[in-house]
Write a structure and sequence with these properties.
298 residues
Length: 298
């Protein structure tokens, strides 16, 4: 029969093992953080509390933030609709990662004129957004979403890799934090490209068609303009990212036995606020609650 002392020792041991298990679990680098609303942006972003963005820096931050925000909104539509439960979780986590990136960039952009990230997300109209056309393209079937995700994640990986060397400390800090997540996004898309291309005749036909649908919007991501020139080393020159992007595409397509689609590039003008029709459908759904109940909290 156990003594009271033995029972106490046993309870202490169980408690220590539980604490240890919880500590180990917390130390594991689990992809995806659903606690977006708990982020302390003042601590997360280096420098934003002390240095406000200039007009040009804010415009550049809007480009990066809007890309992430709109793509996050698009991917969120797959929750409960993905072809398998694991993809519900994966696409949801990717959407949350991108939402975190968007909050960081929009928070910085808003420091120029005192607007919050919520103001910028919910109370701008279509011409005020600076996202590229590719993130606005419809989800389509699962293959089309994967094709779009492959292009954008590969581009973002190269962008954030280079942006870590920005002379703007805030851009560098956001890129450093975001790169590991985007690396996962790219790997996820690559694995699905290979899986679909190497699967059934139907899955291969769908990914080939999907790549053809999104490829016209690739070039816009790599176009230089006057804003980039004015920002100098604070920004990344988009055209310098193209060789590395093309290298990844070549490697993945070679393994999947795919060819780069022979399509004309679009006249995409998302960086200047000239948008494709899809954005006009995305924004009302994203903004309706905030606009119907401005200032509401819960």
């Amino acid at each position: 029969m156990s003594t009271a002392h033995e029972e106490t020792v046993h309870e202490d041991t169980v408690h220590e093992e539980t604490v240890h298990a919880e500590t180990v679990h917390e130390d594991i680098d689990v992809h995806g953080n659903v606690s977006v609303d708990e982020l302390d942006l003042a601590q997360e972003l280096s420098g934003t509390g002390a240095v406000a963005a200039s007009a040009d820096v804010a415009e550049y931050a809007l480009r990066l933030g809007d890309d992430a925000l709109i793509l996050s909104q698009q991917l969120g539509a797959w929750i409960s609709r993905a072809p398998e439960l694991e993809e519900d979780v994966a696409l949801g986590n990717i959407a949350l990662d991108l939402l975190g990136h968007a909050r960081s960039f929009l928070h910085y952009a808003g420091s120029f004129d005192g607007r919050s990230e919520d103001d910028l997300a919910f109370f701008r109209d279509e011409p005020d957004f600076r996202c590229a056309w590719i993130v606005q393209q419809p989800n389509g079937d699962f293959a089309q979403t994967i094709a779009r995700q492959f292009v954008v994640a590969t581009y973002m990986f190269e962008l954030y890799s280079a942006l870590r060397g920005s002379t703007d400390e805030t851009f560098a800090a956001i890129a450093e934090k975001s790169l590991k997540e985007v690396d996962y996004h790219r790997d996820h898309a690559v694995q699905w490209i290979l899986r679909l291309a190497g699967g059934t005749e139907e899955s291969r036909a769908r990914i080939i068609r999907a790549l053809g649908d999104v490829w016209p919007y690739v070039d816009e991501l790599f176009r230089d303009d006057d804003l980039i020139a004015r920002l100098g080393d604070a920004a990344v020159v988009p055209s310098t990212l193209r060789p590395a992007f093309d290298g990844v595409v070549e490697t993945v397509f070679a393994e999947a036995e795919l060819s780069v689609p022979a399509v004309m590039s679009s006249s995409a003008g998302g960086r200047t606020g000239a948008h494709a029709t899809p954005l006009g459908h995305i924004l009302p759904e994203m903004q309706v609650l905030a606009r119907r109940h401005p200032g509401a909290t819960w």
